[in-house]
Amino acid sequence: MSTHLTTVAGVAVDTRHFIGGERIASTETFTDVSPIDGSVLAEISRGTAMEAAAAVAAAKAAFPAWAATPRAERARLLHAIADGVERRLEELALVETTDNGALLRSHRRGVMPRVAHNFRFFANWLLELDHEDFTTRGHTNHVTWDPAGPCVLITPWNAPLMLATWKVAPALAAGDTVVLKPAEWSPLTASLLADIAAEAGLPAGVLNVVQGYGSEVGDPLTAHPDVRRISFTGSVPTARHIAASAAANLTPLSLELGGKSPLLVFADADLDLAAGLAVEQYDNAGQVCLAATRILVEAPVAEEFTRRFTEKAAALRQGDPREESTDIGPTIHPRQLEKIDGFVRRALEAGARAVIGGHRGEGQYYVPTLLTDVRQDSEIVQEEVFGPVLTLQTFEDEDEAVRLANDTRFGLAATVATGDAERAARVTARLVAGTVWVNCFFVRDLKAPFGGSRHSGVGREGGTWSFDFYCDVKNTVTAPKGFKDHG
Ligand code: NAP
Ligand code: MG
After folding, report:
1. How far is CA 343 from the centre of its chain?
2. How far apart are CA 448 and CA 360, in angstroms?
3. CATH class of 5-257+452-475
4. How far apart are CA 179 and CA 149, in angstroms?
5. Minimum CA distance residue for ligand 1 atom 16
6. Is residue 235 lining ligand 1, measured as CB closer than 6 Å?
7. Model's pTM, two decimal places?
8. What's the CA gap between 51 and 18, in Å, rounded?
9. What is the DSSP string of 260-293?
């Protein structure tokens, strides 16, 4: 076996970059470990400015032919990639779980089918993408979505392949070419995606994958003058850095960032449903950007809500994410575990009380935690923990609920539990968030826009919004036949 192949959960994964249709190795590597048991999975090619430049050059060279490829053919290739994802679904699920520690059952049933759906959805949407012409004084205004050029897509580790393909699929559908930089803590499924794309017949250079540390390959990618779009999902500090780097060329950016989203529980809510929604926030060990980590409960029902919440949380099983019965897996990395622990320790020192949890588990696990007696201006209420840590505060009325809900620098999502439709309409209208859920969580149509307000992001992706971002949108105005009057 080539020294560049590693076997993870029985699946062969190439550890090299994928540039211009070829596997390219770097002389240096970085080590990828499994959060399940700390075992070393692979030595991954550690990209430098050289590989970053080569990948952008490959994407630039492939762009004219891909942009000129008829929409129907681009859509066919995206469906072929989706077929490949479905064929290798079990392998992708196993590798992803081993690499980032998220639940195998979620990868099998939810995440990997969604990866395939990302490709099918944008392939189909591309074929329907159209706009009725506008007419002004007899002149038609015809809107088209023209391919923009090479895109740099940078993604995090919490849902690696899902978030990567949420960008790769619309970019390819739009007629753009791609350089994908996966997160260093979970790079493996991006490499499998490169194999799948090649097998599907995607032309060389249309999708490139560069691996490495963000601090090393980030700038050479994001500051590159030939890059026409940058889409990034990750943290606010990295986003600031990328925005500054992209500023040199005024490269358009889409930023999907962190959150500190609220769950508002009104006294008129179905409390069982509300407690269920709250417990759902421990999914993926709390490593979810959208997670409603601030539970705000109307005072008269706080005790009853907490009782039901605690009951449901006690039933959660923490353990090996490959086991069907596990609900909460490990934290991605010892560094992340330290970070979570630090947040909770400081909160407890400041007077918070742990209703459940409040400490680490064995190994790389953090015990699901609910903290109460927290101040609105405290770190634990204001900053994203990105772990299984929720806070609970009470409110007296609708005004206070909205005030607390909106009082952070984030605005990614919000969830409202209420039995009163009029209240739902009033409250949702006042919440600052890219997505608001009423009596539900996480469900959303890919046709709808997705993104964050304030520090939770810049721009929206999804449906036509994705094409608006990945394309140069053009309006062609044509005079009516025989038109002479330009006065
Ligand atoms: P991160 O540290 O910002 O890293 C995200 C990606 O950026 C990684 O691929 C990272 O590479 C790369 N990167 C780091 N420094 C860079 C630089 N100077 N230039 C270019 N790229 C660079 O975020 P994370 O800790 O992986 O992810 C967690 C964050 O993502 C949380 O804040 C979460 O809320 C957010 N998130 C948001 C959404 C959303 O849709 N809104 C979804 C999921 C997650 P390395 O891994 O090599 O450092
Ligand atoms: Mg890993």
Report:
1. 23
2. 38
3. alpha beta
4. 11
5. 214
6. yes
7. 0.98
8. 10
9. -EEEEE-TTS-HHHHHHHHHHTTGGGG--TT-EE
Topology given in CATH for the domain delimited by 262-438: Aldehyde Dehydrogenase; Chain A, domain 2 (3.40.309)
CA–CA separation, 448 and 363 (whole Å): 40
pLDDT over 70, % of the chain: 99
417 backbone dihedrals φ, ψ, rounded to 5°: -110, 115
Q: How far is CA 275 from CA 60, 133, 391, 416, 486, in A?
A: 51, 48, 13, 12, 65
Q: Contacts for 439-446 with beta carbons within 8 Å, 24 or more apart? A: 439/269, 439/270, 439/273, 439/277, 440/277, 440/415, 441/277, 441/280, 441/292, 441/415, 442/280, 442/290, 446/117, 446/118, 446/121, 446/125
Asked, colleague to colleague, whether 5-257+452-475 and 262-438 share their fold, the answer is no
Each domain of the chain, given as residue ranges in start order, spans 5-257+452-475, 262-438
The pLDDT assigned to 487 comes to 57
Answer whether 81's CB lies under 8 Å from 202's CB. yes
The minimum-distance atom of ligand 1 relative to the CA of 157 is 26
Judge whether residue 132 has pLDDT over 90: no
Query: Is 351 exposed, middle or buried, given 0-12, 13-18 or 19+ CB atoms closer than 10 A?
Result: exposed
In short, whether 336's Cβ falls inside 6 Å of ligand 1 is no
